[in-house]
Write a structure and sequence with these properties.
Length: about 500
Amino acid sequence: MCGFIGIVGSKGADVFRDIYEGLLAIQHRGQDASGAVTFASHLQVKRGMGLVRDVFQEKNVARLTGHVGVGHVRYPTVGTGSEEDIQPFMMHFPFGLAMAHNGNVTNFLELKNKYFIEHEIRMSSSCDLEAILYVFAQDILEQGCARRISRANFEHAVRSVFEKVKGAYSVVGFVPEQGFFAFRDPFGIKPIVVGKRVNPATGEVEYAAASESVVLDVIGFELMRDLEAGEAMWIQNGQEPYFVKVATKPHRPCIFELVYFARPDSMLDNVSVYKTRTRFGTKLAAEWKDAGAPRPDVVIPIPDSARDAAQAMAQELGVPYREALVKNRYIGRTFIMPDNNSRRSSIRRKLNPIQIEFQGKDVLLVDDSLVRGNTSRKIVEMARAAGARKVYLALTSSPLIYPCPYGIDMSTKKDFIAKNRTIDEVAQEIGVDYLYYLKQESMESCAKRGNEKVEKFCTACFDGKYPTGDITEEMLGAIEDERMASQGAE
């Protein structure tokens, strides 16, 4: 999972400062690397390993000029995670093009071994965005319109991408001096929002596309809409956005965005992440009581993404809510760290208990999900060391047991502690006295409320039903082998 922002501003404006602020707002989506590309008289780029604040310095502001640009934060799910994989990507010849994406190309290996060879394309990275970029550019060239791209040419190129590039991806980019664009995969698995604002100095309307609406809030853009599944947007220089539905597949947005990834102050597909998580907590409390689960003395969230659900659960149970795990703000999200050693070593540095809230109490910890179990096991040990009499755990999602080929770092079967284990066995493995998962149907119904356009979410990591329909055991095996090899390279 990654995050991006793209802006096309007024002529003469410089958009990099807004891109920088936008990337800070979605730093939670990727802590491995970041980058930006802008255009004035030529393409300018800055990319590097690390957090946004570390990659970009004041000298970059003076150099990254121009009224159009894209920025990206990354954590790797494809490739080795080397500097060559840092987005955005760009090409200078035979025409200028810059692009960034969030997601995962499931047939990336096939494209490398067939399409790229047929077209004599030499890759410069192991990042799957390069597949999207080259398929898009190749179609533009084959149309013979590289010097003057119309919206019809753009639509044709996006259709070519959808036909050849499989998986889940949302994309933003621009062709210098011609147009700014964005598109969302045919099933709409990965999110993308579009916003606008009026430049007070020029009166011109400026546009942005980003992974989450919080980006638009931070830089003063008004949320216009989400791109629909299979929809593309093209903004010819000086014109209003042109939206076109290129593919007509059923919309299947990723439910894990609502469970974990997105910020609570974001809106995705016109649904409040905060309200959804609150509904998770209310429903979880109802199920907890119906299951005859033990009554806790206190409800404590595992920060940050479980806070809203934990508050709602505590209120519904009539139990005190306490922020008793203090988070070190300078330690990143452990789920998206590149390997188990990094995750394990950071957990204790990341959280510290307030002992008086644990001593002699039956404690109910609330978290969003349970993947590998490393974090939960350490936190349970921490709670007991702080004096908890009993430790319970409630989760706002159902058991994760299937690999995700769509860009979440759960691509290997060994990632899942719940795989081939009963709930009691998982509880024993992480050391809790009682464990409860929110039922999948409850999770989906909470997410659907207020979201009439989405009939069903992508829940493949919970039930193995892959919406793209082309995920085979062979493909999953190849993705797993590639990911394990890249982790070894790290």
